[in-house]
Amino acid sequence: MDFNDIYQIKDEIEQIQKTYELFNEDARLNRSKAARVEFLTNVRYIEKYLKTGGRILDIGAGAGEYSLYFARKGYAVSALELSSNNIRAFERKLHPEDKVELVQGNALDLSRYADGSFDIVLMFGPLYHLHGEEDRQQCIREAKRVCKDTGKLFFAFIPNDFVILTEFSFHNDYFVSGDYDKETFALEDFPFVFHTVPECREMIRRGGIRILHEVASDGISELMEERINGMDEESYQQYLRYHEYICEKPEFLGMTNHLLIVGEKG
């Protein structure tokens, strides 16, 4: 099976399952210095609000990169993931001492978790896949419901506009042959769902979330992967400081492959 076969699948859950049989989520955040920028940035914002004894819910936990990082720092983590392939990758990395409750489930239904149970709620993935606005709002409502009134919510998106440049870096003829509307520059929503920055912002506000931060999580790191991976450690650390300096500037929010929005109940 390839992505052309997956394109023919109409059931969203089956499509997600098949996508992650082809897409290696296990290596995505740790395969290189450039790939690590997104993870390090998101962790830095989570740690701004994470207090001793805080409970974390990782919705769409993927192969467990965030769940395991925080569990191994002593936090109690509940992780929910839809993809069977990602679940298997996650389980291979679990140690008996890891305080992670891992279950397979759908972000649209968090009924296994009580209202106001978590200090930190992460949603780094589900909104990449939901085509319908009602489903997206259901996802946000459920995340909001299980978050404490004093808690913080973290939502990740794949912004439309910068992905076009990233695809161009891989395909010289992308501007002619690429899967996007040649007039509006809207990408075809496959295998992920794409949004502009204003659309992401409006989606979160419509869900009753007050926005605290908007962050270009990985910035230009995928586009400049070869250069970043070639840095020595001193240069890389200074690059990370530069990225921290610009990642919330409004003029850079659309120049990223992953947008992070941090909020609280509004």
Would you mind describing this structure in some detail?
With 266 residues, the protein is an alpha/beta fold. The chain has a single domain, classed as Vaccinia Virus protein VP39 (Rossmann fold, 3-Layer(aba) Sandwich), CATH 3.40.50. The chain is 42% helix and 18% strand. The chain has helices spanning 3-7, 12-22, 25-28, 33-49, 65-71, 84-93, 133-146, 160-170, 174-177, 197-206, 225-229, 233-246; strands at residues 55-59, 76-81, 100-104, 118-123, 147-157, 209-216, 259-265.
Outline of the structure:
With 266 residues, this protein is of the alpha/beta class.
Largest sheet entry: 7 strands, mixed
Content-based structural category: alpha/beta
How are the strands of the largest sheet arranged? 3-2-1-4-5-7-6
> What top-tier CATH class fits best?
Alpha Beta
- First-to-last CA distance: 44 Å
Which residue ranges are poorly predicted, with pLDDT under 50 across at least 5 consecutive positions?
Answer: none
| Count of β-strands | 7
Radius of gyration: 18 Å
CATH architecture: 3-Layer(aba) Sandwich
Beta-strand content bin:
15-25%
CATH topology: Rossmann fold
Give the helix tally: 12
Q: For this structure, what is the CATH homologous superfamily?
A: Vaccinia Virus protein VP39
The geometry reads as globular
How would you spell out the order of helices and strands? HHHHEHEHEEHEHHHEHHE
Global mean pLDDT: 95
In helices, the fraction of residues equals 40-55%
How many distinct folded domains? Answer: 1
